[in-house]
From TrEMBL:
Residues 31-381 form the Aminoacyl-transfer RNA synthetases class-II family profile domain. It catalyses: tRNA(His) + L-histidine + ATP = L-histidyl-tRNA(His) + AMP + diphosphate + H(+). This is Histidine--tRNA ligase. Its EC number is 6.1.1.21. It comes from Labrys miyagiensis.
Length: 491
């Protein structure tokens, strides 16, 4: 009966998640290795935490009576404890440091990379699983740790091939922002919501400009689509103070500091933040990192609420084309800041910390746009073709010799003929195909086909007879010189 017919399972990818190709994985692996090399030059050591943490350890998303709040993927284990997939790499680090505090050297300097998960609505360029690469210094109250991270970020960009002038490390300080809030009368718990609205408005300065931010600081703003965003409801004088601060950046870090210092003179917190920025500017400047690489930018906010001091972002300043072909800046690929309260949640005492996170996929996209990633040029293994199944052991011996010489190699293990084997080698991006039929075997020879030169010829080959007459991009050498000749061809 038709109703008894077994339904075929539909192959479908989960929404908000992506499969990764071999070329993307290899490009990511190479990029991560470069980042690691820079971090290790600075004395950071690798660390790793699990994908899963107790939900309350993540901090930002705490479990309620029924289930954790939105934003994380959560489940209960067999003893009814709530567990969640990590949504970043910083909260698990804070738990790890607190749990191993006495055994770790302080300051504790580590880097970690891995996937994180957000239970959020996916959209264009917004995924539920993505990779981050973090570096953190835990246990140092000095802003020298923040300065060092900013210098390391600049070095990382240049090591990856992003030239000076194509990126900027922008720094600000949440203490200065808090001081500005105090100066306009928005301190206290009762104004927490309005402060958040103000911070969100400042964060849109690059996109909306001064007048757009002014609208969001006052009554609100209607965008091009007609959607209305409610503003912070500030008085004109309050909004102007915020704008004076946000537009306070000048040509040099010293000039910027002189511009913003009077704006927070009435605030102890704000003044302390300005002096921290001055100290960072002095440290990076004396190490050779001028404002062409690391610059104070008063519009930098950073979204996470646990930042307590300096905050920083790496912005790529070169232009790319959007979906409509319009030029746009690539924007931020990394960011971080000081979070002195995160480890303290576990220990009940202040534990200063500063950290930095790179969005791996976004940075890889930037490198691709710059032409620094040539995934099409990734070389696959040398493919040893199989002309006679009875001689499979001979072909395996060839592949084994190549591997022992450090050359990636594989034997074709399908059941197709010569033309299909060459197409397979092309698909595998193989640089060289090794062919030995019965005639070559009797003569003690092998044929080596340079696939980069012979790709077009391979498409026209119809059978083995035609192959034997075609000698373009092909070398015939003694079997004993197989490894030596392949090395020459790869070189």
């Amino acid at each position: 009966m038709a109703g008894d017919k077994k339904q075929k399972l539909k192959a479908r990818q989960a929404r908000g998640f992506v499969d990764r190709s071999a070329s993307e994985i290899m490009a990511t692996r190479a990029m991560v290795a470069t980042i690691q090399s820079v971090y290790e030059l600075y004395g950071f050591e690798p660390g790793e935490t699990p994908f899963v943490e107790y939900s309350d350890a993540l901090g930002k998303f705490l479990p309620d009576q029924d289930r954790p709040n939105e934003g994380v993927f959560s489940f209960q284990d067999d003893d009814e404890q709530w567990l969640s997939l990590r949504y970043d790499l910083t909260a698990p680090l804070a738990r790890y440091v607190a749990e191993n505090f006495d055994a770790l050297p302080k300051p504790y300097r580590s880097y970690r990379s891995g996937f994180v998960f957000r239970n959020e609505k996916p959209g264009p360029g917004r995924f539920r699983q993505f990779m981050q690469f973090d570096a953190d210094t835990v246990g140092s109250p000095s802003v020298a740790a923040d300065a060092e991270i900013c210098m390391m970020a600049a070095d990382t960009m240049e090591k990856l091939g992003i030239a000076r002038g194509s990126y900027l490390v922008r720094i600000n300080n949440r203490k200065v922002l808090d001081g500005i809030m105090e100066a306009i009368g928005l301190s206290g718990d009762e104004n927490a919501g309005r402060r958040l609205t103000v911070l969100r408005a400042i964060d849109k300065f690059d996109r909306l400009g001064a007048e757009g931010v002014r609208d969001l600081l006052s009554g609100g703003r209607k965008d091009e689509s007609g959607d209305f965003t409610k503003g912070a409801g500030l008085e004109p004088a309050q909004a102007q103070t915020i704008l004076d601060y946000v537009t306070g950046q000048r040509g040099s870090n010293a000039e910027t500091l002189e511009r913003i210092r009077p704006l927070v003179a009435s605030s102890v917190t704000g003044s302390a933040g300005v002096e921290e920025l001055a100290r960072i500017a002095d440290l990076v400047g004396k190490s050779g990192y001028g404002p062409d690489r690391i610059v104070i930018d008063t519009s930098i906010v950073r979204g996470l609420e646990y930042y307590t001091g300096p905050v920083y972002e790496v912005e790529l300043t070169f232009e790319v084309k959007d979906e409509q072909g319009r030029p746009v800046r690539f924007g931020s690929v990394a960011g971080g800041g000081r979070y002195d309260g995160l480890v303290a949640r576990f220990r009940g005492e202040p534990v200063p910390a500063a950290g930095f996170s790179i969005g791996v996929s976004r940075l890889l996209a930037a490198l691709t746009a710059l032409g620094r990633v040539d995934s099409a040029g990734e070389k696959g293994p040398v493919v040893v073709c199989v002309m006679d199944q009875a001689r499979l052991a001979d072909y395996q011996a060839m592949a084994s010799e190549l591997r022992q010489a450090g050359i990636r190699a594989e034997v074709y293990l399908g059941g197709s003929g010569m033309k299909a084997q060459l197409k397979y080698a092309d698909r595998r991006k193989s640089p060289v195909a090794v062919i030995q039929g019965s005639d070559e075997a009797e003569k003690g020879e092998v044929q080596l086909k340079d696939l980069a030169l012979g790709a077009e010829m391979a498409k026209a080959i119809a059978d083995n007879a035609e192959w034997r007459e075609a000698r373009v991009a092909q070398r015939v050498v003694p079997r004993s010189e197989l490894v030596k000749t392949v090395k020459e061809m790869l070189g």
